[in-house]
Give the backbone structure.
Amino acid sequence: MSGQIPEQTPTVTLTIDGKTISVPKGTTVYHAAQQLGIEVPIFCYQDRMPPFAACRVCLIEVEKMAKLQTACSLEATEGMVVKTQTTMAVEGRKAVLEFLLINHPLDCPICDRGGECPLQDQALKFGPGESRFCEEKRHFKKAVSLGPVLKLDRERCIACARCTRFGEIIAGDHALEFIDRGYRTEVGTPGGKPVESKFIGNTIAICPVGALTSEVYRFRARPWDNDTTESTCALCPVGCSQLLDSRDGQIMRTRAQENKAVNDIWLCDKGWFGYEYTEHPDRLTTPLIRRGDKLEPATWEEALSLIATQMQSAKSGGKIAAFGGNSLTVEENFLLQSLFREGLKCNNIDHRIGMSSPSMAQEAIPPGMSMSIGDCEQLSYAILIGLDLTEEFPVIWLRLKQAILRGAVVIFLGHFAPEIASQLHKTRLHAPGKELEEIQTLISEVQELAKSGNKGALFVGRQYLNSPNRRNILTELHKLTQAVPNLSLNVMEGEKNSMGARLAGVHPEWEPLGAKLEKTGMNALAVLEESANKGWEFLYAVGCNPAAYTPKELWNRASKNLKFLVVQDLFLTETAKEADVVLPTLSFYEKEGSFISIEGRVQKLRPGKFIPQNIYSDEEIFTLLAQKMHIPLSIHPLFLEALQKPFIPLDRDAITTEPPFTAAETKEEGLKATFAKYLFDHDELMLHDPHLIQLAKEPRVRIHPSEGKKRGIDNGDLVRLRRGEKTIAAQVALDDKVALQTLVLPLVFPKVPVWELGADLLNGFAIEIQRDS
């Protein structure tokens, strides 16, 4: 008997190949056989989706049943007697495999799935050995592109439906579908258009025959040629577990590593394909020093000596600052703040470049989840409050979708509907500025959903957080969680390793581990404004690009009055082009260290590729600079100890006891602005990923069709947006998923320079729109 079953769990006892086992009621024969170590072949079955029984390769014989049965879909019953190795079962499986191979091209030597192909393995182990079929096989044009990252070899497809069912059941995006019928059945996309999905890489991973392959990895390596490294995806705050496959020191592909507490077996497409930038020819390879009007190559000794001299010189005046941290490991963040805070007595340190940067008083509750990502699947209800989940925390959607399949009620309220709206119970839209009113309406709904002790969660995102009323909003939501049992509040805010940067103290008001500073520093915006108005001595920008996230007029004045600028990055960004010294550094894929996810989980990063010659990691650069300035620099043992356990968010009860502040609602005429962040945007890394960048859509500002009609604006028109004396031009999209009186501005697209409308953009400001003549 296999395992101990809790007494309260209804069980059934059956016999498989002479072995008796008791399993929970509802268990399939396939899973029962697995527990006994009995192998039954499968193709269409995938254990994250309900049984489908399309391929019939899992045939077994069951006493008192006249025909062979499919083990993956047959529920075990009391007294059932199953035989997997009878002549009828074995010959049945051979016949199915022979049938599957009739038109399969047997092109294993050139197939990317060769060496890790279930069909190859099963044909060898359970197949007939030879085929009676001698007619000409079907031939198709090879290979069909289904989008920038996905190729389809139609000859290989066995119509198992794993890929189409993934889109229907797991992702909810219906990205792939079967077209035609009978022997003409093949995988296609709705309307024959390029595939629309943020998760299509997962279909490549679960395809059992190599019909779906990666445009990025195709023909680059064989699995036995690859060296595999366990690491963490650091491209968003979810922190999915990831495998890096490299050959001769170059990353060939990235894959999901199973981690049921975080990403299960999935990644978003950034995780699957977002590594090509590491080998881009534009990558910085040597330090640069400004000589006259030009940046010219220099040695590390020259560059570091010059920086150290300038830092020491600026120290006496106090006008010294460091920006960045989201692109660093936790350990590197600690060293960065220690270099400036302990070595230079400077608290002007901020990681929130291009992000909202409220003060502690305005923030109310820090970012982070108070539940684990894996527990999202067990929720009975969830409220997405101004959070576009698939764009900012994509894999968390895949976990929440499983809760929906189990009957969970999920409601969205915000300024514009997310792409997952069709999967949700209810979507309620409102204009920016109405958040507190909506929360009052929400309270009774949550109390009703929470009856019988149901487990629920509030997920609040940028549409509500990026508000002048943020403190009030979070205070009210916190009160709700105190009044309703089993309800968590999750503040979904961040970029890459911003949680790690915050914990390490790269913040003008926090020391490492969340201790409040007695003497606070200036945030990034305040530093730039001070530089623009009164001048500044020294600015160190690490893995960030403030020139791209600041109004040009402000940046131009600030940089003109800035005595010395150092940029440490992968590429020659807008900021780097104006620097006095530029230092090349390593990417996340080339580093060892820690990453802290939005749920506070400490994950490990490990280098998965060859380290470029003559390039140091950020940690090595900080250490070398400290040595030149005779500053002792090391990571405090208490901090290293803290990294051995999950990061616990600060005491929320204490934070929300201060009196809330309510900003007055603007009475200005015009639409109210809100901002949208996209998974596929035009940031520096995306622009250097040749396949991934093709997934980014052309940026548009969005308004409701009725708002366009009032103003004589049609879909695709070039419009001018005005906020006071500030204007920008953009193309418009009419979208009925946008609330009335609302204008949605896309972030991180140079074609729509939203920062020209203001330095610290909060939702709700009035904006005028008119056709550009």
User: Anything to note?
Assistant: The chain is about 25% helix and 20% strand. The radius of gyration is 28 Å. The longest strand covers residues 726-734. Confidence is low (pLDDT under 50) at residues 1-6.
